[in-house]
Design goal:
Strand content: 25-35%
Strand order of the largest sheet: 4-3-7-10-11-1-12
Helix content: 10-25%
Number of strands: 25
Shape: globular
Radius of gyration: 25 Å
Number of helices: 8
Number of domains: 2
Length: 492
């Protein structure tokens, strides 16, 4: 899951957004569950950040809509069905709406039973627009939980996903949505519409696979002791899923996010073998790696001498990366600086190690598909890294779920969830209180009562199903030829 692309805008406006969010958010009581709606009835506030923080937005209500201002309860306006409304940021913290008398300063809320068309997408629920001090508009879609699930499935579920696999994803999406609410509370919404949280594309076509999967699993969430869990998932695990702490998701192991072999106990073929990114090879220039790694390593790296992927887990996925490079320091009398072969006077050989997941983020999660590295080779001044899978690898593997749902396994969505999430139960969201799911992260589990049906108890071990990818000891060290002469270059 990637970081938001407009972090600089959030940082300067967060205090203003938070103040406005207090006006727009419903009340939650942490001490009383009697006044809190069940999870099945909650509304999620989704920041439509993929629209971009822009100064203007065109919205078309699909039925008669009402425009209100939370800070001015007496003001409202009516918008006709099909009317294209141009909304623009104005000085003084107000929003100008074409064809509408000047609304009061502050955020605007658009309510429409038929939904809204924004560009090529349709959003159900309400739209909230907040003018930010930097001349931009923050757009939030307040949507019922089940409609949110449909919108995520439309974006996250591959078109080739089999029905039972898509239903398993629906349960995971719903669970992640309620367990990770308030992840963006400081930004004025619950969840964003990018891979940082979950992709969200608004209303899917009527009768679509996404709509059917959400309907057939309506209200079902994964829970431990009555508490919804962060049901994370990735595109392709590469043959085995990862432990949560190995992927930077909390410091403590969670029993329901343990790595599992993505294959039947008596089979050699991975469930996810048919995934488009099940195997891959990427290429980096040595100088490019030096430039990408320099800020985090706190060194003036003039060259990368070697990179090694080590400390493999039970299945062969790297947990650490070690970089050996030349650190260019100005020589001073008595500092012991030496001139390494191929380096300049003042260069010193420095070794740095970091978690493999952190290395992947530094070089770009879109550039290094996963940390499941299976081989390396050097061609000139370039390093080629081959591996398996796409994503962090924790929780459900979408390609593997699709494989389980197909022949010869024909697994049900419950069996798929049982395979990837250890010791969880399928609970009815109507029995779980909405206040229990505010701001949870992967490192926390609470003990609350709830009504659920157990899938399977946690396993004490992961079994001896083997390790994909061959011998990890023979594939990890990368030493590019002439790398001591490589120099970091600047790209404009």
């Amino acid at each position: 899951m990637s970081q938001l692309s407009h972090t600089n805008h959030w940082s300067v406006c967060r205090a203003t957004i938070l103040a406005v969010a207090i006006l727009l958010l419903p009340s939650y009581s942490a001490d009383s569950t009697s006044s809190t709606p069940p999870l099945s009835g909650i509304q999620l506030r989704v920041g439509l950040t993929k629209l971009g923080l822009r100064g203007a937005l065109a919205v078309r209500p699909l039925s008669t809509a009402t425009l209100t201002n939370p800070s001015s309860p007496g003001w409202h306006a009516t918008l006709a069905a099909g009317q294209l409304v141009q909304m623009r940021w104005c000085k003084g913290g107000s929003i100008k709406c074409a064809g509408v008398s000047a609304p009061p300063a502050g955020p605007l809320k658009m309510s429409c039973a038929g939904g809204f068309a924004v560009g090529l997408r349709i959003y159900d629920g309400n739209l909230e627009l907040t003018p930010l001090p930097n001349g931009r508009l923050l757009v939030v879609n307040q949507v019922p939980l089940e409609q949110y699930v449909r919108g995520v499935l439309q974006a996250e579920g591959p078109r080739t996903m089999r029905p039972e696999a898509l239903k398993a994803l629906a349960v995971a999406v719903r669970t992640y949505g309620v367990s990770s609410r308030a992840r963006h509370l400081a930004d004025g919404f619950d969840l964003c519409d990018t891979t940082h949280c979950q992709l969200y594309a608004g209303r899917p076509p009527s009768g679509s696979p996404a709509e059917r999967a959400a309907t057939e699993t309506a209200g079902e969430v994964l829970a431990v002791n009555g508490e919804p869990v962060p049901a994370v998932y990735s595109a392709d695990c590469g043959g085995a899923t990862a432990d949560n702490e190995s992927a930077g998701m909390g410091d403590r192991p969670n029993p329901f996010l343990r790595g599992v072999r993505d294959a039947p106990p008596d089979g050699d073929r991975d469930f996810c073998a048919g995934g488009r990114m099940h195997s891959w090879e990427v290429s980096f220039a040595v100088s490019e790696l030096a430039k990408l790694l320099m800020p985090s390593l706190q060194m003036r790296m003039s060259a990368v001498l070697s990179i090694s992927f080590g400390d493999p887990d039970e299945w062969g996925r790297a947990r650490t990366v070690t970089i050996v490079g030349l650190d260019r320091q100005p020589p001073t009398p008595g500092n012991g600086a030496t001139q390494p072969p191929g380096g300049a006077l003042g260069d010193t050989t420095v070794t740095r190690s970091m978690p493999a997941w952190a290395f992947r983020r530094l070089v770009g999660e879109d550039r290094l598909p996963s940390t499941f590295v299976t081989g390396v080779k050097v061609e000139g001044d370039r390093v080629r890294i081959s591996g398996r899978g796409y994503g962090h690898g924790v929780g459900m593997c979408l390609a593997g779920a699709n494989g389980m749902a197909g022949p010869p396994y024909l697994a049900s969505y419950r069996a798929i969830l049982e395979h990837y999430y250890q010791g969880v139960t399928i609970a009815d969201a109507a029995t779980l209180c909405g206040s229990t799911a505010r701001g949870r992260d992967v490192g926390r589990l609470a003990a609350r009562g709830g009504h659920a049906r157990r899938l399977r108890a946690p396993r004490s071990g992961r079994g001896g199903h083997g390790r994909p990818g061959g011998d990890p000891a023979a594939r990890n060290v990368v030493t590019p030829p002439n790398s001591s002469r490589a120099r970091a270059t600047r790209r404009g």
